[in-house]
Amino acid sequence: MVRTAFGFICGEIKEMNLRTIILLLIAIVIAALAVLNWNTLITPTTVSLGVTDIEAPLGAIMLGLTILLCVFFLAYVLSMHGSVLMETRRHSKEMTNQRELADKAEMSRFTELRGFLETQQRQSQDLFNARMDAMEARIAVRSQEAENSTAAFMGQLEDQLRKRGGSNDGGASSSSSSFNIDSPISRS
Q1: Between the CA atoms of 16, 17, 20 and 26, what dihedral angle is there, to the nearest 10 degrees?
Q2: DSSP character for 53?
Q3: Which of 163, 156, 158, 152 shows the shortest CA–CA distance to 183?
């Protein structure tokens, strides 16, 4: 962008220098003709003003009008240049304001996006935690059910062994069977 702006300004300066040189050459030619032909320019002649005729140097009048025209043209060019500079400054301020608004809007979008992502992450984490809690609860229930069924199964086995042991020897084999059944439970 800087190179483009610099090239644009250089192009304007070259164009402006060319115009200025041409205008200066024309002014020099007019001044040279006026100096070389000064006697002719100040020679009084009859000049018609439309309503009346007067005796005046026509060349001096035309030279004065040319100088007056140049002064007005120069004032016009300077006023145009000033208005263009003011307009450029206004556009520059407006562009800066628009850039700041765009930056603020972009920052706002990033902030909103960050908030959205944090909310999504929090919701995902909460959902994950809820699922983990539910899974732990199910595992605890199943573990309790497994312990209960194992205890019930062990109780049934002990009852069956007592019934068998009580009918065979009267108690000697019952105590050894009972000891073998209880020992794996007491180890765990």
Answers
A1: -130
A2: E
A3: 158
